Amino acid sequence: MNCDEIQESLSLYADNGLRPEARSDCYGHLEVCPVCRAHLEELRAIRRALTTLSRPLPPPDLIPSINQALVAEAEAQKLRSRATLVDLINDFALEWLQPRAMRYAFSSLASVLLFVSAGHIFVFNQIVVRMRMTWWWWRMFSVMARLHWLT
Ligand SMILES: [Zn+2]
């Protein structure tokens, strides 16, 4: 392993996170390379300095402000869900009452009325034709009967 590869794995080496053979390779390189040994020492010094830092405390109003933001978000979600339901009902009503839908309904009704009235006209016409034929036969019968009585 060269110095770049060793220096990339120095953090894992310091944390004892390398596999045993990689760790022994790294250890062997550190025995003979003062540059990588200096990097390792610098890394350990930084870590020691970090452990001496005091743990930062959150500002005292952080938890109340988070709670306040959560309550406000919950209220906003409630309002949004109500608005969404109202919008859904409104959209449904608008869709139902659209002129397009009413036009289709009227044209369907007009088709049904036309079909029914055409059927009635046909039936009425048949009745008229039969009545005329009956009248014609009655006239023929009466003419024949008159001729028969006259002779
Ligand atoms: Zn090295």
Keywords summarizing the entry:
151 residues, binds zinc ion, 6 helices, rod-shaped, mainly alpha
Offer a quick outline of the entry.
With 151 residues, the protein is mainly alpha-helical. The protein has helices at residues 3-8, 10-14, 20-32, 34-52, 62-96, 99-150.
Describe the structure.
The protein is mostly helical and about 150 residues long. About 85% of the residues lie in helices and about 0% in strands. The chain is built from six helices and no strands. The longest helix has about 50 residues, at about 100-150. The protein is rod-shaped, with a radius of gyration of 51 Å. Zinc ion binds near residues 3, 29, 33, 35 and 36.
Chain-wise SSE layout:
Layout lengths: L2 H6 L1 H5 L5 H13 L1 H19 L9 H35 L2 H52 L1
Helix pairs in contact: 3-4
The structure holds zinc ion.
The site of zinc ion has 6 residues, from helix 1 and helix 4.
Q: Count the DSSP helices.
A: 6
Approximately what portion of the residues adopt beta-strand conformation? under 5%
Order of secondary-structure elements: HHHHHH
The main pleated sheet reads as: none
Helix fraction? Answer: over 70%
Q: What structural class do the secondary elements suggest?
A: mainly alpha
Question: What's the number of structural domains?
Answer: 2
Average pLDDT works out at 88
Low-confidence stretches: none
Distance between the termini: 145 Å
